Every structure is written in C-alpha cells, then in structure tokens.
Inverse folding.
C-alpha cells in the first residue's frame, strides 16, 4: 500500500485500538456479570464483596424453570437418592419442586408474538413499500411521514386508547391483540426500510420483465423480491428484535396468557427473597438470541436503527 | 428521484401491455398493496388518537364503569398545565434528555473517531460495543438495580477500586443527588453505540480527497478537524441527536425498572408519571389530556428540529 | 362482554389462526375445569400450590397459578380486573382492593353462597372479616373469604441479643437489659446500638424497614409508626374529614420518628426496600432487626443461619398514643368475569373446611379460622405463633375505598419525598397529603 495522508500511522492505530478495546471490555462487564451470576449459587450472588471466582452451579437455571416451595412435614425425611438430579439440587436448599414455572410459557409467547408480528409487518410492509417506490400514490410523502410518526409517540400514551379498544374487543391479554399491535408498530419500520431497499433496485430490471410478458405481480415476485431479499431479511430481524424487547405496551396490555418475557423476567422471585441467579439465568436465555442476531445484522445495523436515514 | 422513477415506470408500461396485466391497472395494484397498511394504521393509530383527543375533554375513568361520563371542556388541560408536579417530571425528563445526549454524543463521537483509525480487528470490537443497545431495556434495567446495590453490586466496587471510596458509603439509586445520574449512566452505556455507529458512517462518508487537498494547502490536522471533519459530520450528529431525543423523551422501561421514579420523585419522568395517572389511578380522561400534550410537544419539537436539520444539510 | 372475545377472535382469525386455538380449548369440558388462581408471588403462594393438590385430587379439577411479586401485584391485577380479563377465576386480592372490586362488580358477592354452604363469617377472626371480606366495612356484605391472615411485625437476632458482651454494653449505655423493645423509642435505641457495630468481623446495621417507592412498601411500613403516634385517617365522627387528623401533631411526630429510624438505623442502600429486600438483608446477616409481614416467619425459622432458634419475634411496639400494627393479608374472591364460577366456588368451599385450614397453617400458610388459631395448642405450635396472635389483635388497615390506588400513590409520593429523599418537613408532607386526599375525595363526590 502506498503512503496516503489519510492513512493513520501505526502508532495512531495502536493507541486508538487500545482505547476502543478498553471501552469494549468495560461495556461488556455488566453483560458478563449477568451471564456469570446465572451460574452462581444464591448465597454467592449476594456475597459482599462481590465474588469473581465462584463454584459454578446450574441452580439458577433449575429455579427459573420450576416452581418450588419449602419442604415441610413428612417430605423432610424422604430419601433423596432416587430423585432426579434437579430435585436433589433444590432439596439441598430445603425446597421441593411443585411444578413448572411460567418462564417457558412466557418465552414461547415472546417467540409467537415476535415472529407473528414480524411476519405480518414484513408481508404488508413489503407490499406497501413496493407501491410507494414504484407507483404514484396520492399524498405519498405525507403518508410516509405519518407512518413514521407512529414511532414517535410515547408508548404509554398510545396504550391508553389501545387498552380501551382492546377491552371492548376482548383483545386484552391475547396473542392476536399483541400481534396486531406490534405489527402496526413494526409496519412503520418495515415500510421505511424496505422502501429504501427497493428504491435501490434499478427499475430497468422490471421494465425488461414487463416487456417480456411478466405481469406486475410476477415482476414484483420474481424480479424485485429476490433482489431485495437481504434487505428484507435484515428488516425482519429488526422487527423481531423490537417485538422481542418491547416492554411498556406488553406490561400494560397483557397480564398472563399472552405476557411476553420482558415484563415477566423482572418479576422472577425465589423462595424467601430475590433469586438473582434465576433472574440472571432467565436474562441470559433471553438476551443471547439477540446478541446472535446482532452479529448477523452487522452490515445492516446502521440503516436499521436510523429508519434507513443513514446507509453505508 | 422518486418522481422520475414513477415517470420511467409509466413510460416503460405502454397502454397495450398494461391491459395484459389481467385486468389490474397499476393504480389498482398500488391500492391493493398499500390498503392493508393504511387500514391497520388507521385502526391502531388514527382511530385511537382521535379517541384520546375526545377522552381528554371528559372525566372518564376506566375503573368507574358505573359513573356517568361528563364533558369537562378544557379542565383536564388546565389541571395538568397548572400542576407543579407535572412540571417537576418535565424537569426530570429534561435533565435526563440533555445529559444523555451530551454524554452519548461526546463518547460516541470519540469512539467513532478512534474506530475510524482502522486498526486491526475494528469490525469485531465495533460489534461487541454495539451489544448493549440491542438488548431489552427492561431486562437489562432490572439487572442494573442489582449492579447498583451498595453492598453486593458490582458498580460500587468498580468505583471503589478506582477511587478508593468505601463501596457501602453511597447508593446510586437510593440518593436524591445520585439517582438522576444513575439513569443517565445506564442509558449512556446502552445507547452510546448508537451515536457511535452514526458518527462512524459520517466519518466514512467524507472523501479522502478533501483531506488530501487540505494537506496540500498545508492545513494543520487540528484545522482539518474543525474545518472538514466537524462540518461534514454535523448532519449525522444532528440526526443522532434527533433519534436519541425522541427515544429518551418516551423513556419508560429502563427507568421504571431501575428506580421506579424514586427516590421521592427525583427520577419520575413524564412517561412514568403518565403511567401512574392512566394505569394506576385510572384517571383516563385526565391522562388522555396528558398524552395529547406529550404528542404535541414531541411533534412540535421534532418538526422544528427537522427543519433545522434540513437547513444544515443544504449548506 | 363474553361474546366479545369470540367475535373479535373470528374477525382477527386470519391474523393468527393458529395462536388463537389455545383460547378455545378451555371452554369444552364441563366436569373437570381448569381453574386459574391469581395471587402474589411469595412463600405462602408456593405453599398454597402444595395444599391445593388435595383439592385437585378430590374435585377432579386442575389448578394452575399466576403469581406476581408484590411490587407489581396491584398494578397487574387491577389492570386485569379493569380490562375485563379472564385470566383469573380465583383471585386472592389485597385487602384494600375490595371497595373498588365490590362497587364495580368485579368480585362475586358471596353472601348467598355462604348461606347455602353454611359458612359463617363469625367463625373467622373479626379483624380479617372486616379487613378482607366486607364492603362497605362493618356491614354484612361479603365479597371474599379470609384466606391469609397477615400483619406487620418484627423479627430480631435472638443470638446477637443474648450475647453476654453485647448485653453488658447495652446495659451500660442504656441502663436496661437488651430485650424485645416495648416502645418504638426503645426499638430505635436498639437500632442505633447495633448500627455500624462489628459482629463476627462484619459490619452490621440496626434494622431493615420498608422504604419501597414503586408500589405500597413505604406506606405499609410508615403506618406502623403513624398509628402509634396518633395518626387517624379521618374524623371518627365525620367521614372524609381529614384536616387535623391526618396532619395532627401526633402524625407529624410519627412521621418524624420513621424518618429518624430510616436515617439512623438502616443498612446502606435501603432506599427502596420491601419484603424481599428486608428478608435478604436479614438473612445475609446485615441487620439486627427487620420489619416485615408475618408471612416470612416460617421461612426465617427454616433458614440454616438465622433459623433454629436464632431469631425471635415481636409485635409492633407501642407509641405514645397506642399500639397498632399495619394489617396485611388477603381474602379469596371469585372474579365475576370468570367462566368457571361454580368450580371456583367449590374451591372456596373446600378451602373453608377446618382440616384444610389446619393443614394450611402446617404448610406455612396463615389461616384466619378461629377454630384453628384459637385452639389451645396453637400458640405453642410455632415459635412465632403467639406473636402472630398478638399482632392480629391490634391491626389497622389503609383505606379500602374504591379510590384506594390514588390515595396510595399520593401517600407514596409525599412520604417518600420526605422520608427517603429528605425534602421539606414532616408537616409539609402531611399537609400535602391532606390536600391530595381531599382532592381525590372531592373528585369522587365524597366530600
């Protein structure tokens, strides 16, 4: 490589690299602490000073998936050898498992509502974005801005009328209601992002297809969609992450049946006092998929978070 | 650009061929494609908004189904705007908004500047730095209450490690002086990467040739920074501020998990206050008026800002 | 209201056909119902799961449970009731909700059912009947069966109290023996005595008290001081007349006392503590005493460190004008919106039986049935049983008005501002509270 005035010197690179890595490590500390706490025993988790070195246990994970109560009466003297390993583990703490916890249900709700709303937002959003990109739609700019404005409203303010509407329709605390709501919210993101991706596809491709005798639908389906596929996929992941992380609306509009994980995880509590390892275990299970998605999304991260306003 | 696109599409679709499209004109297809989106948005956004505006003039309460709903005119608005507690929450929100933006822009810009030095592995580290902002604020906020606990949490020990202060001597979310900063710290931790990414895009959009030309003119690095880098990146920074401003004006999940609005009302942001009015006291009419005031504020501020942003872009 | 879910589901069916099928599945079975019981997530609830297994066996119904931790419980469940939801068939709702739930028809009225099954409210502790079941108070209109009797009391480290060197030092400082405090003033002295003390190489603190901001925590703690210094909710002769009762000189003294207790004797970071934080502080050996609802006592006894006789219990000590303790506890109600009301009533009938109530005590519950708690051997059945009985005899509760939530939110805000955030004076805080409460009652048309 030839010398360039804009190419930083190797000393500059070394200094900036060190600083950035230092920042990255500090910023990761809370996340690493969550993951580590998930493998602590409850007494290690509240030890002071905090323990960096500890004996790992899966207690937290067992607690997150089970409901427990304190051992009482005749059960106290039962032999423990024949019991499954997880029951033995909780018996050591003087507890016994009385059933499953609600965590796996809530996690599944997150999956169903997340994927459901993403699916509808993407299908409807792609169609609308195509129309906005290729056809003369009356009041197009106003419509696009209006679609975006829905994301600017505070969710609590939005929740007041939605709560009343859902109550009259019997949609409170239902999967259908939450899917509908998240679809509506994600539509704005989907339309804006996909609109940008379709704008980038040269219109000549479709023209050629139309002249070859394709119908509009076919041209859309066979020419435009494959071209926009990566963009649509990354948009889908953004929609999914939004629905996955959403808290304010979920906490106000669901109470059990359709409750997702974010309102549930902070309410995890143990037998006799806060069970931080269980909270950390649940958080880990919940957060890791998003970290994986983030890695997959690297290239489109920027356009996703800025509604397509900034692209690389 | 979009107009020319449509024109080109129109030109490329001769009348004869349009008829071949099985009876659907482009216009029909456009409507078929757009209608579901518009319908959903009408049902979930516009209709509720109108309903909210209507309710804001009534004394309706969800938890009093037997009470008659009365039209109270502007009384709700008068009560809110005359309520000193509401202004306190606005102040708390402003403090949160201003400081998170200042810190995030400063740190985010410096980080982007450093990453733009293109050291080896910068992609990997960028991805790692980005993690916090992709995570659920409620789940993370909840865990931060644990990190902030004076006796058993990590935060005070890290502070004590660097400064020698006794970790049991202060409580980030328990003290009036510290709590507003506790929420600023967590939000900055989460969202600095957002500003960083936008700045990075801005820095990378500056053509090398400009710097090369400046170098020929013997401009110092310092001068180049102020006359090239900053003006070129300003629209990007302003965009980042817009996004963070809107997001933090809405802030609810992270702070409600962290402090619940306390101690006292020191971290009661408007969203938290509104939630109490609407979903704990169930003063639906009153809180609808509150919501309308927030809509107007955020739209008003945002559109003024967008105008300014466009002016900067045009320069 | 019932048809709504069905119609809306069909219209929205195209959106989520697969997801919805779960909603229809429950309606078919007639004999064996699936009953969902909602309560707070705490130790007694876990014990109830265990207890309810007998009911499942006898009735053939299956039980499922929805437990929400205290700081979120009222929020979530009142939201559920107000949204007309069907999540809960049975709800063990907090005592203060009864006014609203009764007036808005959210709980079934149980008078007829009680008569039919000859369940008599005279068989339950009077305080719990008034506190958990009646609306309006002191009238024979029942919307719940007393399910869990609870009251704020104190737990202390008997093992520390009994150490000779500590005993000696306390004697020297205060000229009396270190023992269970008889007055709140004595309690504070003990707290100050332990604050910052080194015990077995660890710094310990005086007392863990309620300071939580978000829900009801601070109020549930503070009232224990207010009541005993002369605070009254209203003019006993003139309902809803607050001035001079809520902000009387006694109230001011009580509030100042609680703040001084917070300032002098609590562990670091105790600015947002409720039940579980206090348990943690106590069990991890940070504090000599903790304020908490009686429900924690079985757990304390079972704890490997603080249990086994290392802990003692006492009722909320008296103040200058009297001795009261904040009532906790709940009644069990049938949610009017439920589709399984018959099975739900069956559960209540089962639960009211004396054997079941006795077993409820044995597994860690707290029954309110007099036949159980007034039995001669009850007081000796557990180390904390006598304290429980003494405390239940001196209870007082917060407002149970339909507007209770607004009243509570105002209290939390004003009091947290003063006690924890340290803003203003006690008089200003209480005057502010009178103003807020007056406004709420005026809005309600009660004044």
């Amino acid at each position: 490589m030839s010398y360039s005035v804009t190419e930083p010197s190797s000393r500059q690179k070394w200094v900036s690299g060190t600083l950035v890595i230092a920042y990255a490590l500090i910023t990761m500390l809370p996340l690493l602490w969550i993951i580590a706490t998930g493998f602590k025993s409850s007494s290690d988790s509240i030890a002071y000073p905090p323990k960096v070195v500890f004996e790992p246990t899966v207690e937290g994970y067992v607690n997150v998936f089970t409901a427990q109560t304190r051992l009482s009466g005749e059960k106290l003297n039962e032999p423990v050898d024949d019991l499954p390993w997880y029951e033995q583990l909780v018996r050591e703490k003087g507890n016994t498992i009385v059933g499953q916890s609600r965590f796996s249900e809530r996690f599944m709700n997150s999956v169903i509502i997340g994927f459901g709303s993403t699916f509808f937002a993407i299908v409807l959003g792609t169609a609308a974005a195509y129309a906005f990109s290729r056809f003369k739609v009356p009041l197009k700019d106003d419509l696009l801005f209006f679609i975006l404005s829905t994301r600017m409203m505070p969710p609590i303010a939005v929740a007041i009328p939605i709560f009343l509407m859902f109550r009259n329709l019997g949609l409170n605390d239902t999967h259908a209601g939450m899917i509908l709501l998240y679809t509506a919210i994600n539509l704005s993101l989907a339309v804006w992002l996909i609109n940008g991706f379709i704008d980038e596809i040269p219109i000549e491709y479709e023209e050629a297809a139309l002249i070859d005798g394709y119908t509009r639908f076919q041209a859309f389906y066979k020419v435009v969609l494959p071209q926009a596929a990566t963009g649509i996929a990354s948009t889908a992941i953004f929609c999914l992450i939004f629905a996955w992380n959403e808290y304010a609306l979920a906490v106000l509009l669901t109470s059990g049946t359709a409750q997702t994980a974010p309102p549930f995880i902070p309410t995890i509590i143990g037998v006799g006092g806060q069970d931080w390892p269980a909270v950390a275990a649940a958080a880990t299970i919940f957060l890791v998929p998003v970290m994986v998605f983030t890695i997959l999304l690297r290239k489109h991260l920027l356009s996703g978070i800025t509604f397509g306003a900034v692209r690389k | 650009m979009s107009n020319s696109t449509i024109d080109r599409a129109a030109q490329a679709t001769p009348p004869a061929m349009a008829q071949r499209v099985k009876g659907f004109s482009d216009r029909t297809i456009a409507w078929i494609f757009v209608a579901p989106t518009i319908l959903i948005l009408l049902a979930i956004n516009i209709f509720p908004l109108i309903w909210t505006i209507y309710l804001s003039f009534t004394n309706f309460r969800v938890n009093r189904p037997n009470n008659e709903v009365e039209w109270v005119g502007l009384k709700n608005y008068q009560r809110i705007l005359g309520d000193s507690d509401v202004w306190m929450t606005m102040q708390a929100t402003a403090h949160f908004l201003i400081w998170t933006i200042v810190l995030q822009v400063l740190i985010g810009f410096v980080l982007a500047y450093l990453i733009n030095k293109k050291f080896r592995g910068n992609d990997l580290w960028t991805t790692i730095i980005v993690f916090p902002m992709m995570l659920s604020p409620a789940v993370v906020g909840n865990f931060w209450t644990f990190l902030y606990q004076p006796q058993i949490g990590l935060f005070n020990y890290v502070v004590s490690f660097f400064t020698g202060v006794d970790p049991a001597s202060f409580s980030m979310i328990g003290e009036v002086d510290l709590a507003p900063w506790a929420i600023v710290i967590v939000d900055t931790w989460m969202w600095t990467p957002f500003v960083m990414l936008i700045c990075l895009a801005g820095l990378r959009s500056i053509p090398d040739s400009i710097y090369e030309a400046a170098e020929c003119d013997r401009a110092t690095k310092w001068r180049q920074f102020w006359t090239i880098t900053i003006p070129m990146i300003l629209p990007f920074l302003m965009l980042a501020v817009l996004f963070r401003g809107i997001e933090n004006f809405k802030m609810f999940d992270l702070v409600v998990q962290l402090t619940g609005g306390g101690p006292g009302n020191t971290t009661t942001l408007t969203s938290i206050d509104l939630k109490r009015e609407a979903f704990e006291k169930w003063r639906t009419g009153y809180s609808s008026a509150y919501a309308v005031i927030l809509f107007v504020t955020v739209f008003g501020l945002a559109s003024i800002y967008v105008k300014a942003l466009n002016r900067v872009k045009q320069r | 209201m019932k048809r709504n879910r069905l119609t809306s589901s069909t219209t929205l069916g195209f959106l989520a056909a697969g997801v919805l099928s779960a909603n229809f599945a429950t309606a078919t079975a007639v004999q064996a119902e699936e009953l969902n019981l909602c309560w707070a997530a705490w130790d007694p609830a876990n014990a109830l799961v265990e207890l309810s297994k007998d009911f499942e066996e006898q009735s053939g119904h299956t039980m499922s449970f929805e437990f929400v931790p205290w700081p979120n419980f009222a929020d979530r469940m009142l939201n559920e009731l107000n949204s007309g939801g069907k999540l809960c068939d049975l709800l063990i709702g907090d005592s203060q909700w009864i006014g609203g739930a009764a007036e808005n028809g959210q709980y079934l009225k149980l008078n007829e059912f009680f008569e039919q099954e000859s369940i008599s409210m005279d068989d339950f502790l009077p305080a719990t009947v008034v506190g958990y079941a009646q609306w309006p108070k002191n009238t024979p209109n029942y919307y719940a069966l007393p399910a869990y009797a609870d009251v704020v009391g104190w737990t202390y480290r008997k093992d520390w109290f009994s150490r000779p060197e500590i005993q000696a030092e306390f004697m020297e400082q205060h000229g009396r023996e270190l023992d269970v405090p008889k007055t709140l003033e004595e309690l504070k002295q003990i707290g100050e005595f332990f604050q910052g003390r080194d015990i077995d190489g660890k710094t310990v603190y005086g007392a863990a008290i309620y300071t939580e901001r978000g829900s009801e925590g601070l109020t549930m703690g503070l009232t224990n001081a207010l009541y005993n210094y002369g605070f009254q909710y209203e003019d006993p002769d003139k309902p809803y007349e607050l001035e001079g009762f809520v902000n009387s000189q006694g109230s001011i003294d009580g509030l100042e006392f609680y703040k001084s207790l917070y300032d002098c004797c609590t562990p670091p970071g105790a600015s947002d503590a409720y039940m579980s934080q206090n348990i943690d502080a106590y069990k991890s050996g940070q504090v000599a005493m903790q304020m908490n609802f009686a429900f924690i006592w079985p757990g304390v006894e079972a704890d490997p460190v603080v249990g086994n006789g290392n802990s003692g219990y006492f009722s909320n000590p008296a103040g200058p004008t009297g001795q009261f303790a904040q009532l906790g506890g709940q009644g069990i109600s049938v949610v009017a919106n439920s589709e399984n009301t018959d099975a739900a009533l069956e559960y209540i009938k089962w639960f009211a039986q004396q054997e079941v109530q006795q077993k409820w005590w044995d597994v860690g519950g707290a029954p309110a049935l007099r036949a159980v708690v007034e039995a001669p051997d009850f007081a000796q059945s557990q180390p904390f049983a006598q304290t429980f009985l003494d405390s239940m005899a001196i209870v007082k509760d917060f407002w149970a008005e339909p507007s209770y939530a607004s009243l509570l939110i105002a209290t939390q805000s004003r009091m947290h501002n003063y006690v924890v955030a340290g803003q203003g004076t006690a008089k200003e805080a209480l005057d502010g509270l009178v103003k807020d409460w007056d406004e709420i009652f005026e809005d309600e048309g009660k004044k």
